[in-house]
Amino acid sequence: MINKPIQLISLLALLIFLAVPASAADTSVSSAAQISVISYESNPSVLMKGDIATVKVIVKNTGTENVDIKRATILTKDLNILNEQSYATVGAIGPDVSKEFVFTLKAKSDGIFYPRFYLDFSNGGSLGYPLMTKVESSPIELSVLEKPDVFQKDVKSNVKLVVGNPRENTVNGVIIKPVSDSASFTQTSIFVGKLDPNENREIEIETIPSKDGEIKFIAEYRNGINIHETEKTIPLILGEDKKSADPVVNNIEIQTTGKGYRVSGDVTNAGLKNAKSVVVTTKSPAVPIEPNRLYVIGELEPDDFSGFDVDFIVEEQDFAPLLIQYKDEDGNDYTKTIDIKLKDSSLSLKGQDKSENSDEGLPLVAIILIIAIIVVICGAIYYSWKK
């Protein structure tokens, strides 16, 4: 039988035990149970090597009492934490209150990593939570859809590009810039803007070449706050477009008028592309006069032709320059000059093998006939002398 003193001591010990507050371990367990991570996000959501990202973690006190937090941090060997000491001291989070923690991370290499977010409680214990972070360095793509077979000096040509985003996340602020010391451009840059994952956009850049060289197209874009570039270079070699319009003059006739001359003929488009806004006139030293200062033909399709009449005056010149002006389908201006010989109404084409009515002196038949007559006369004289 247990004596009364022992019973009193046991009862007193039980009362003392019940009166003592919960231990630190019990308190830390209670704190961890009240605090939870309700969300986290990374901007950009997918980094590239060397990128800096902001990671925002939101925690909430779901309990009914204040929870004192000593510090918050992120632990990882795969990423650099640039603001590791930002939350060396935190303080209390009240019931049903959320708190935001923002960390700055820098990617060192490609891969999928799990940096761990930690909260250390003031009364002991901690809360850990993994934050998945993806690093993938694929750039956006820039390619050429269309460009001229041959670039022509000082002639506008369009280069069509397509820019696409093969990444898993959206990129922003996309700008395309053409760069060259061999050409000029009507636009120094083209703003594309945002490109969602797997989205692409087509653009055209008008180019005016001046010499042989190359054109570099630079696509500048942002992944989060990080600026990146993608380049595409094409050669720039000048030449003649074999498919372009080529007006040729035929059937030239020249008449003298009271004031000067009238030249008539046909213009044929011997090229493979349309000649637009075709106009025939003359230039210095010839001076166009009314009624036909210039003759507007308009558009000539390949193998199409049209007649013209042009009036002009010229002083003491053997030749008069006939000027043909026209445009291509892109609105580029072209000119072609043909010298017309006036004295014998013949046509002389500079830079062309074809010419009409260009024989000088007497026709060949007349020359042969004169020689035959001379031979007959000489034969008759010789016959008479022999007799």
UniProtKB/TrEMBL annotation:
It comes from the Archaea. This is CARDB domain-containing protein. The chain crosses the membrane at residues 362-385. Keywords: Membrane, Transmembrane, Transmembrane helix.
